[in-house]
Amino acid sequence: MVDVSIAQLLFVSFAIFSIGAGGFLIRKNAISLLICLELMLNAVNIAFVSFSRLHNNESGTVLYFFVITVAACETAVGLAIVLNLFRLKKNIRIQEANALRG
Amino acid sequence: MMEFAFYLVAGLMLLSAGLVAFRPKPIESALWLILHFFLTSTLYVFIGADFVAVVQLLVYAGAIVVLITFVILLLNLNPQEISGGESIRWTSTVLFLCSLGAVLFCLHISTPSLLEKMPAPGSSFGSIEAFSRTMIQNYSWSFEVAGFLLLLALIGVGLLAYRRPSTRDHSNIENKSEAA
Predict the structure, then answer these.
(1) Could you tell me which residues are beta bridge partners of residue B117?
(2) Which residue among B17, B21, B130 sits closest to A58, beta carbon to beta carbon?
(3) CA nearest to A56, candidates A14, A7, A19, A6
(4) Do B3 and B66 belong together in one domain?
(5) Domain span including residue A59
(6) CA-atom Rg of chain A in angstroms
(7) Residue A1 is assigned to a structural domain of this protein
(8) What tens digit of pLDDT does each residue of A2-34 get?
(9) How far is B66 from chain A (nearest CA, A)?
(10) Quick check: is B8 in a domain?
């Protein structure tokens, strides 16, 4: 076990979240968007587990468990939507996914 | 020594996160994501959350990345269709980084206790027993709801990915009806 402060862990979490958010805003590819979303959820998980360790309370770890459950569901449903988008448009560029724009 | 290991792992995590977010091809992003999840698992071991580290490897690196990789291989995109069109707006990026620095600086000024070393956790912290006691005793209802959510996602993915036989060869059917 390493002696670290909560600030170091939170900085790692915050930086990874920012990288994921930047990638999510910049990328134009539906699968890359899902991957960046995973990155952001992972950063949030690091913060949950760090606070769980700081307060010596397992509730943060339980929350981590629920976050990965939702992340798994979100990835599966998102990839199924990407699959349907590919069948419809023959590519997965999100600029062309404008069927709901009207 | 362990401090150095922590900084090494944290730096590699940031590096791999940057590669995940900004490599042009999705398959490269997915492969760097595996490295990122391994390093995250190492970080969890460093802070004493052993069960979480194992779950991280099993669920994220073992299931989710494999699912993403499988779909990338299934789609079989043209190389020229994969990337392009990305534009980084440098003004917004600089503004974002400045505001981020301001927030971190204010946090540093207001709560210096964040920089103290964390106290040693209880002996059972991170064990599967402590985790499951908390989950079953305090969060059993949420646990059931999470299971129900997984079931709903399973049904939803089945419905979304299912291709109805009547619409599968739509063009062929139209050709046949025209021929008839």
Answers:
(1) A5
(2) B130
(3) A6
(4) yes
(5) 6-94
(6) 17
(7) no
(8) 788 888 899 899 999 999 998 898 888 899 999
(9) 11
(10) yes
